Amino acid sequence: MKRIAIFLDGTWNQGDDNTNVWRTHAILAEEGADGCKQLARYDIGVNGFFGGTFGKGLVDNVLEAYEWLISKHDDGDEIFIFGFSRGAYTARSLAGLIAKYGLLKPGSPISTRQILARYQRPEEETIWNLLDADAEEERLSQRLEISTEESLLKKYSKRVPIKMVGVWDTVGALGLPFFGIEGVSRSTLNWLHTGLRRSIEHGFHALAIDEHRKSFAPTLWSARQGIMAAPRSLSSVEQRWFAGAHGNVGGGYELDFLAQPPLRWILQKASSLGLCFRFQVELDGDIFAANVTDSYRPFMKGTYRKFVKRFHRVIGAQPYKDGAGNVHTTINETIDETVFERWRSRDDYRPVSLQRWAELYKVEIAETIGTVAIDGTPLLESK
């Protein structure tokens, strides 16, 4: 058995940007404390105007990571997937592909492009349903035939669990909008599945409270009404809010202490699941003295703010409808203790998003100690 870790960075990001994805990759140990080998792949973010702006390359990144995983994976291996920004969207899309259609065995007569094409058709049977005994019995009772592709999929694809998906500030836009007009690729790439399926054992998502560009609205994990699935425990799925803008939470700014709390949190979660690092990250300097970056005002050389108003993210959002009319509720949101410590230590830190959350849930921000659940209830980990 070995542990396989895939690292997918954000748009235009690469190693020398020192994002939290890169830092996590850089400190990964070659083997675990138990002697298990640890194998890693790092992908830089999509570069270039067309790649960065219109989503070109995202699907290729998913496919390349999937093909690499096929070549490295043996039965019993544990899979960890990390990502930041649009790389987080890529990471979750990759996890969705594996969760729905499994991992092809090397030498399969089915190509990865065929699997991708199947992924684009949401009505197709998943590998889990194809291999499920009860579903097979129902098909036989109704005399339903499976296609040649499905027959080959049953033989050449294997159901594999994903140990953990760890992401920093997933942005849902497949391309950056131009003056608030959504990217041209959204309608053609909305089949990418970024939810939490049953084979994704753990999911941890660090979110930025102080990102004000509407183009960077976060994509949280949610539960859909009407789907009979057991609720995910906080120990297996958590979406934690931190102080900072998109790049503060995901890393990439120079001398940025605000990136350390969300980095440390994801590392602690991965470590608790067996992934081994050469060292853990400690908080350096005074994180409360570090200023939150205003990513909104200078974005697109100041042009963006002339067309798009400052946006305030919603913490603990009420149920909402998607484009198909399905009702979703975000799940397992928490707020990190450093947010409240920052509020108490700095009179100039008064995020609108946090104040609206406090008003909704009747919470006194200044009196809140420790990390809390979305209703203000302290978590057991808090001191």
Number of domains: 1
Shape assignment: globular
Largest sheet: 8 strands, mixed
Number of helices: 14
Count the E strands.
13
At CATH's second level, what is the architecture?
3-Layer(aba) Sandwich
Q: What is the CATH class name? A: Alpha Beta
* Mean pLDDT level: 86
CA distance, first residue to last residue: 37 Å
Using the CA coordinates, give the radius of gyration: 21 Å
Approximate helicity band: 25-40%
Q: Order of strands across the biggest sheet?
A: 2-1-3-6-7-9-12-13
What's the order of the H and E elements? EHEHHEHEHHHHEEHEEEHHHEEEHHE
The structure class reads: alpha/beta
Strand content: 5-15%
Q: What is the CATH topology assignment?
A: Rossmann fold
Task: Give the low-pLDDT segments.
Answer: 49-54, 173-187
Give a written overview of the molecule.
There is one protein chain. The protein has 14 helices and 13 strands. It is of the alpha/beta class. It is globular and about 65 Å long.
